[in-house]
Predict the structure of L-threonylcarbamoyladenylate synthase.
Amino acid sequence: MSIVYDCSRPETREAGLAAAAGAVRAGQLVVLPTDTVYGIGCDAFDSAAVDALLAAKGRGRDMPVPVLVGSWTTIDGLVMSVPHEARQLIEAFWPGGLTLVLQHASSLAWDLGDTRGTVALRMPLHPVTLELLREVGPMAVSSANRSGQPPASTAEEARAQLGDSVQVYLDGGPSGEPVASTIVDLTGAGPRVLREGAISRAQISEVLGTDVLLEP
């Protein structure tokens, strides 16, 4: 049986964060608010929990799960190296609606799906989720919806789609316009925008001082 916590009230927010942290540590799923859309998440290093997340969404391993972090410095332990372009984009847009694709560290014991050695990383701009991430560490988080259905902009919309497959729902109020994050791939010869979302390609290009290509 899942439980919804109203994070707009201090007393229920504290209880919700404690319940969510306990659920993540127990290998269970939680729904949390972000600055783009609501997400469904779990411990990034628990492969069984990641499998449960994919099953809850009805999604295959061919669409690996991104990872949310609670600070700029967390990524240093997750990737092979942090290129200069990544540092520039992090300083300009984190926390916020930018996802960076980098080569993950080969020593990490995680299984996020068929990643081909890469990981998609983001630091969200939402106080509830940042507090949870700083408590439990990196989380595998995907949009809180069944595959092929609209992304959820409220906890209620997420629960209508995911039901009791999720143990804890953190209700942070409406997320606003359900705009996905922009995805920039930094694993090749030059940066590429794989998806244009909350941050425009023009903004990315301005920060990097070069015209960044948008993948067709």
Notes: Residues 3-177 form a domain with the DHBP synthase fold (CATH 3.90.870.10).
